[in-house]
Design goal:
Layout: E1 2-8, H1 13-24, E2 29-35, E3 40-45, H2 52-61, E4 65-67
Antiparallel strand pairs: 1-3, 1-4, 2-3
Bound molecules: dioxo(di-mu-sulfide)dimolybdenum (9UX).
The site of dioxo(di-mu-sulfide)dimolybdenum has 4 residues, from helix 1.
Domain HMA: 1-67
Protein name: Copper chaperone CopZ
Keywords: Chaperone, Copper, Cytoplasm, Metal-binding
């Protein structure tokens, strides 16, 4: 499965790393691509292992805002 999350508040490369790292620690995440300029985070994942809500919470724990 693949989805795009809109994440607000990422402005530098460290933000990108924080978000990638947080998602990468979740089981079932197969790929993460962050576009800093737009705030779009493309995630490739196994939907039997991880939910959108878990991804959202992991990103929010890092201090960023997930829109929808
Ligand atoms: Mo960069 Mo991101 O100094 O929260 S780590 S803006």
């Amino acid at each position: 499965m693949e989805m795009t999350l809109q994440v607000n508040g990422m402005t530098c490369g460290h933000c990108e790393k924080a978000v990638k790292g947080a998602l990468g620690e979740l089981e079932g995440i197969q790929g993460v691509d962050v576009d800093l300029a737009s705030g779009k985070v493309d995630v490739v994942y196994d939907d039997t292992l991880v939910t959108k809500n878990e991804m959202k919470e992991a990103i929010e724990e890092q201090g960023y805002d997930v829109v929808a």
